[in-house]
Amino acid sequence: MKRIIILILFLVFNVTAFSQHFNQYSQYMFNGLVINPAYAGSNKVLNVTLLHRNQWTGFNGAPKTTSFSTHSQLRNKRINLGLYYISDKYGITQKNILNAVYAYRIYFEKSSLSFGLQAGLDITSNHWEEIETISSGDFVFTGQQDKFTTPIAGFGVYYKSDNFYSGVSSPSLIKIGTFSKSIYRPILINSGYLISYSDDIKFKPSILIKYINNSPLEMDFNVNAYYKSFGLGFSYRTKDAIIFILQYSINDQFSAGYSYDKTISKFRTFNKGSHELMLKYEFGYKLNAQSPRYF
Quick one: pLDDT band at residue 133, thresholds 50, 70, 90? Predict the structure, then answer.
């Protein structure tokens, strides 16, 4: 019976992978490069962010995602470059994504508008030998490894002022390969506004809309409240989870974040929620940088 359950879980995770089409993040508002290439260099500093997500804890074979991103403005302030790497493990599948990012920024008196492109590789491996079958030594699964590399590309637009930002992106606009016809490209729309109650107290409501053809529209509603070095946040992901976020700025350059997703869908009986840790460091911090801590 156990072997049958494992096989069913494998099928479930493969369906889940093709239904999500992109990695799930709860602290996307602090790690904008992974959802929009036009975000690169938006804070005028060299940014390095490390994030690890343990999704659906307590569920065997649940997704585990680690991402590393870095981006910066160059001497020519209109040109911004970035790089990010994602390692995603779910069930028997290991996915590694590497993207190089270019963003061109147009400056206005108190705001900027950028256009971003990214291109890279999606390297996916299916380790069939990890499946336990009813009949031992089943030649279909024994010693099988299915590995393929797919070129990928994406596009985004990002507008930002001192207190407001808004972006539209398609991180996987182009995916060339055998399975490309089976994968729908996500369109992401996000926006946020910073409200200053005082020098020490600030609020930032934000929203992320995820659209995939032939899939239900998903929205993340979020509000973060800041008091000096501390930040507390709450999010609602439609038909999926409620999210609690804690952020602490050790200094003007280094910050850490933690989030916990409590599943509210029918799947809640099979998992104990999701945990996400984030570390962010900004080199060459400028006092006139456009709200790097909040955006």
Answer: low
- Answer whether residue 264 is part of any domain: yes
Amino acid of residue 4? I
φ, ψ of residue 254 to 5 degrees: the values are: -115, 130
Closest CA to 204 of 34, 25, 51, 29: 29
- What does the DSSP 8-state code read for residue 162? S
For the chain, percent helix, then strand, then coil, each to nearest 5? 15, 55, 35
Q: Does residue 202 sit within a domain?
A: yes
Domain of residue 190 covers 2-283
Question: In Å, how far from its chain's centre is CA 223?
Answer: 18
Amino acid of residue 169:
S
CA distance 195 to 124: 42
* Cα end-to-end span (Å), the chain: 49
Nearest to 87 by CA among 42, 134, 47, 123: 123
Q: Is 58 contained in some domain?
A: yes
pLDDT the model gives residue 188: 94
Retrieve residue 159's tokens.
Answer: 């507008």
If pLDDT is split at 50, 70 and 90, which confidence band does 20 have? very low
How many distinct structural domains can be found in the chain?
Answer: 1
The pTM score is: 0.83
Encode 159-173: b = buried (16+ Cβ within 10 Å), e = exposed: bbbebebbbbbbbbb
Three-state secondary structure of 131-159: CCCCCCCCCCCCCCEEEEEEEEEEEEEEE
Q: Specify if 121 maps to a domain.
A: yes
Query: Which CATH number belongs to the domain containing residue 52 in this structure?
Result: 2.40.160.40
Question: How far are the Cα atoms of 45, 46, 211, 241, 291 from residue 288, in angstroms, in the given order?
Answer: 10, 14, 35, 37, 8
- Helix (H) or strand (E) holding 168, with range, is strand 164-175
Cα 55 from Cα 218, distance rounded (Å): 18
